[in-house]
Amino acid sequence: MATRRIESFLLRIVVIDQPQAEPQPWRGRIQHVASGAEQQIDELAQAVAFITNHLSSYGGKEFTFEPSRAIE
Predict the structure, then answer these.
(1) Which of 13, 44, 51, 63 is 20–30 Å from 69 (CA)?
(2) Domain assignment of residue 49, yes or no
(3) CA–CA separation, 65 and 72 (whole Å)
């Protein structure tokens, strides 16, 4: 029987209020809840990389992100 594991990540985004800027500048922080590991980010790809690295470091199947399957 297959086992399952639940991993939780907290993503915080701060949008810098500059009405003239397009797109709006932002920064953020992602945290793996169980370990407390966190990283500052300024691109969504960094959040995806953080999650990918964290999931693959815990063994099991390799996790790959497919942007074409992302929620729009």
Answers:
(1) 13
(2) yes
(3) 14
Q: How many domains does the chain have?
A: 1
Please, are residues 23 and 13 in contact by the beta-carbon 8 Å criterion? no
| Dihedral in degrees, nearest 10, Cα atoms 52, 34, 57, 26 | 30
Beta-bridge mates of residue 11: 30
* pLDDT per residue rounded down to tens, the chain (72 residues): 778 888 999 999 999 887 786 888 899 999 999 999 999 999 999 999 999 998 887 665 555 555 554 444
Cα separation, 15 vs 7, whole angstroms? 26
- Token pair 């693959």 is found at 56
3-class DSSP assignment, residue 9 = strand
Evaluate whether residue 20 is within a structural domain: yes
Burial of 42 (0-12, 13-18, 19+ CB in 10 A): exposed
